[in-house]
Every structure is written in C-alpha cells, then in structure tokens.
Design goal:
mainly alpha, Rhopdopsin 7-helix transmembrane proteins
C-alpha cells in the first residue's frame, strides 16, 4: 500500500534516507572495526575458599566492544526501512496522525540499551547482573515513551505519569555510570579511555534531547504542535546520536 498524502510520502522518504544512512554506516563500521578490544563480563558468587566463604569472580566471556556499533546501527536501519516499506507506510501514517509510533519505541528500547550497556562497561560496570539491570532499566525507560503515547490516546488532558516513570528508570544507570567513570579515572587517570569519556558525555546529551523532544511535543511548543515535526526530530536525533557514538567507539578502539 502506498502513502496517500504528501505527509505520508514525505515521512516515507525521510525514513528511507535515514535507514540507508544507518545501514551504510553499519556495513562500513563492521568492515573496519577492531574486534581485539574486549572487556570481560564477570560474575561473582559466594564459594568456599581457604579463607572461608568469599565472593569469587569469574569471567563469563570477553565482549568485543566495537562490534556493538554496527549492531545498533543495523537495528535502526531495519526499523526505518520497515516503517517506510509499502506494506506498512499507510499504517505508519495513520499512527503519526494519532500521535503514536510503536516501532520507534521498540527499536529504541533495544538499540539505545545496547549503546548504554557498552558505554558503562567501558567505565567499569562489567558484572553480568549489572549489565542486565542497566539494559532492563533503559529498556523500560524507552517503553515508557510508548506507554506515554498510548495512554494519552485515551485522555483529554496530558498525563505525565509514564514520562516521569521513564525519567526515574532512565536516570539510575547514568548516575551509577557517572560514579564509576569518576572513581575509575580518579584511581587511574587513563583507566577509562578518552573515546569512552567522549561517548559517555555525547550520549548523555543526546539521550536527554529525546526526552526534551517528547516534552515539547506534549507541551505543544512552537512547531512541536504538529506531531510530525517531533517525529522528524526523533529521526534526525537517532541518526546523529547513533552515528556519532558508532564512529567514536570504532575509531577509538582502533586507536585513531
């Protein structure tokens, strides 16, 4: 089914361009990445030792940091190409007209959680339980964006409850990550590589711009009165944030 309106055609083109850029970068970064830079993912359980019962650390596996970049870029490419596909574009346009876009939030839930996990692992949060908690909290934060859009389909007055829950869920990993980054660099100045510090700061800024974009949409500030404007902003923010972090990680692990 083809889009029947100018808006539908415009959004289709916008998403296809973003999808192609994401896909092209995913391929390039995969071809040039250095998979030798790895971080161990550990677990810690109590066990019997000569000194008595002690928590014992074991390495479960070594994770190639750079590999995450083409993965989250590929996920974004798939999402953009899906919503702009002929069989889905009419449904996508109808959702945008209602002020909702479910595929966006499902894709963000996975891709941005992977982005955050790898960043915080570079800061020292490498225990498997911590990795799972970080991923889960960020996953929930993004799904609160979907809940915000769905819930407010049913209300006359904007309810900020889902937004506020998302803020609480989303801020915890950043607080813990900041603590580890500060302590690690305080103990050893180059404990956290410069590219990881740049990536941490840039990603934190971009993550907050997504929340600001939603806030402006629901406050109907200026051009954000029209939901499609905010949708385009999401597309641009996603492309810029993932592109910057992807290149920072891959080039950083290459020593560039």
């Amino acid at each position: 089914m083809k889009p029947e309106t100018a808006l539908g055609k415009q959004l289709q083109t916008f998403n296809r361009i973003a999808g192609v850029f994401h896909l092209a970068q995913a391929v390039v970064l995969y071809l040039i990445l250095n998979d030798e830079t790895k971080i161990p993912v550990i677990t810690r359980f109590f066990d019997e030792t000569p000194q008595g019962i002690q928590p014992i650390s074991e390495t479960l596996f070594d994770f190639p940091i750079a590999l995450i970049a083409p993965i989250f870029l590929l996920l974004s490419a798939m999402a953009h190409l899906l919503v702009s596909a002929p069989f889905y574009i009419q449904r996508y346009e109808q959702n945008i007209a209602k002020g909702i876009n479910p595929p966006r939030w499902w894709e963000y839930s996975i891709s941005s959680s992977l982005m955050l996990v790898v960043l915080l692992m570079l800061g020292g949060l490498i225990e498997v339980s911590t990795v799972v908690f970080i991923f889960t909290l960020n996953f929930i934060m993004n799904l609160m964006g979907l809940v915000m859009e769905r819930y407010n389909q049913l209300t006359d007055k904007v309810s900020w409850l889902p937004f506020n829950i998302g803020v609480v869920a989303g801020i915890v990993p950043w607080i813990m990550g900041a603590i580890y980054f500060v302590v690690s660099t305080g103990n050893i100045s180059d404990a956290v590589p410069a590219y990881a510090q740049i990536g941490f700061l840039a990603t934190f800024i971009f993550f907050n711009t997504f929340a600001i974009n939603m806030f402006l949409q629901y406050k109907k500030v200026g051009p954000w009165k029209n939901y499609p404007f905010g949708e385009k902003a999401y597309i641009v923010l996603s492309l810029v944030a993932k592109s910057i972090l992807g290149w920072v990680i891959v080039l950083g692990t290459m020593g560039v």
